[in-house]
Amino acid sequence: MITFVPEPHLLASPRGREWPVVPGVRTAVTPEPPSSADVVIVGAGPAGLAVASALWHHGVRDLVVVDRDGRPCGRFFDRVDLLGQRVLRSPYEHHPGVEGYRDCELLDFARLHWSVLTPVERREIRMAQAGHRSVVPVDVFEAYCRHLAASHHVTERTWRGSVREVLPTSDAVTVRADRFSVTARHVVLCLGEERRSAPDTWWGGGHPPRGVTYWDEPVPGAGKRLAVVGAGLTAAHLISNGLAQGREVHWVVREAGERYQCADVNSSFFRPEGRARFDGVSWSERLELMGRFRRASIMFEFRPTLEAAEAEGRLIVHRGKAITRVTPGVGLHLEDGSRIAVDHAVLALGTTPSIGDGLMPDDAVLDRGGWPRLDERTFAYAGAPRVFAVGAAAGMALGPAARNIDGHRVATARVAAAVAGNLRRDTPLRTATKDVARV
Fold it and tell me: What's the CA gap between 148 and 46, in Å, rounded?
């Protein structure tokens, strides 16, 4: 069998190009949002942007988006740029745009801006049009997200705020942020994921020792020897950055070997028949499927570079060796008794879904092994029917693809339809509030 390995040059799209913008774009017109709204979306990443855009097509315009960064997809692209990432793993058909309406999709947007693209990027678009795998430049994806946010009036409905509490009742939900509170008929949590912390046994818990950082923190430029711990795409970017800086890089992979593939999710779960594998099966069977079909992997394009660096001795790969202890200096102690001494170590240990625990009461989340109990059809929280989840938190209802951009779109379509239908049947919040006040 012949294995096709795409060339590394596909990873090198330009960043920071000028893109045409929708006229009349404005940010939020007041420093604080209104005290009430039909819907509050918590989180303005790709999932939050998708939900807000879909609700706009359903005619839901009384909307407040609360985000810690205060700009649609801001934190998402900050993290991408910190890694120096230039292309996305998601293909052109996976994007936060709205399906089922006359709307501009990502491939349409890229073709409309053909003159801005490089010859390599144009070839990738032709690959996408022919139904083949293609990579999407970060620059194109960010410009498209800005277009979505502007054309669906998401930017002007987004406020900066760190959400402290989400308090559901039978007829409303109150979202309390650091500077304001908003009460809404429905809330959609698009919380994304947070980095996975190292085990407490590595250094006794708490902050990492001197010389150790996580992947979403800047990597110091000093030092000739760098260690990267992790087996996923983030680790691959960190390794490539270190090699480009002329460092000797040590790569610690707990499993017997690294995994190269198009996506870190089995492709069947992006299709209806794959998602149907989750329908009607037990919780234990779902956990087994999640563990078996969502595993850390690296895009094929990295393979030639990393294999060449290993052959040249610039990259030393420690396969099948788990870390038992980390000491300042920096020393990585492995289970076979060996020790790796480096100037700096970066931990890329994956992420964990943010499911609403810590924001909502326990009886609303109904946490079960790190996953919330959700309605299988609408992704509403079983313990808080006016609160919905889109993104990683919907994993045990939607399947492994829930964490990916395509999974966001599937969840968004169901949640937006459910919220819009409920609003049509509900008494408007402001009217209900006034009636209560008269009584």
Answer: 10
- Rounded to whole angstroms, what are the CA distances from 329 to 75, 210, 215? 31, 7, 19
Claim to verify: residue 360 and residue 394 sit in the same structural domain: yes
Residues 166 and 226 in one domain: no
Q: What pLDDT was estimated at residue 429? A: 57
Within this chain, do residues 378 and 426 fall inside the same structural domain, yes or no? Answer: yes
CATH code of the domain in which 220 resides: 3.50.50.60
The C-alpha atoms of residue 236 and residue 385 are separated, in whole angstroms, by 40
Which single residue is written with the structure tokens 């001494």?
Answer: 341
Q: What is the pTM of this model?
A: 0.92
* Token pair listed for 291: 């563990």
| Shared domain check, 134 and 60 | yes
Contacts with 265 (C-beta within 8 Å, 6 or more apart), sequence order = 293, 294, 400, 401, 403, 404
Report yes or no: 141 and 50 within 8 Å, Cβ to Cβ: no
**SS3 state of residue 85:** coil
Same domain, 190 and 305: no
**Which residues sit opposite 189 in a β-bridge?**
42, 389
Question: Which residues does residue 277 pair with via DSSP β-bridges, in sequence order?
Answer: none
Residue 266 in any domain: the answer is: no
pLDDT along the chain (439 residues), means of 10: 71 94 78 96 97 96 96 95 95 87 90 96 95 93 95 95 97 97 98 95 94 95 94 97 97 93 78 80 87 86 96 97 94 96 97 95 94 95 98 92 89 96 78 37
| Domain-embedded: residue 289 | no
Q: How far is CA 139 from the centre of its chain?
A: 17
| Boundary of a domain, candidates 349, 382, 410 | 349
Q: How far apart are CA 256 and CA 337, in angstroms?
A: 17
**What is the count of structural domains for the chain?**
2
Segments forming the whole domain that contains residue 245:
200-261+297-349
Asked, for residue 284, whether it belongs to a domain, the answer is no
Q: Looking at the structure, do residues 73 and 182 belong to the same domain, yes or no?
A: yes
**What letter would DSSP give residue 241?**
H
Name the strand (E) or helix (H) holding 63.
strand 63-67
Which pLDDT value is given to residue 288?
87
Helix (H) or strand (E) holding 244: helix 233-244
Count Cα atoms within 13 angstroms, Cβ side, for 239: 28
Q: Is the dihedral of CA 423, 426, 427, 432 positive or negative?
A: negative
Here the contacts of 216-224 (C-beta below 8 Å, separation 24 or greater) are 216/79, 216/82, 218/82, 219/344, 219/346, 220/344, 221/245, 222/343, 222/344, 223/247, 223/342, 223/343, 223/344, 224/248, 224/343
- Main-chain dihedrals φ then ψ at residue 214, nearest 5 degrees: -95, 165
Final residue belonging to a domain, choices 310, 331, 349: 349
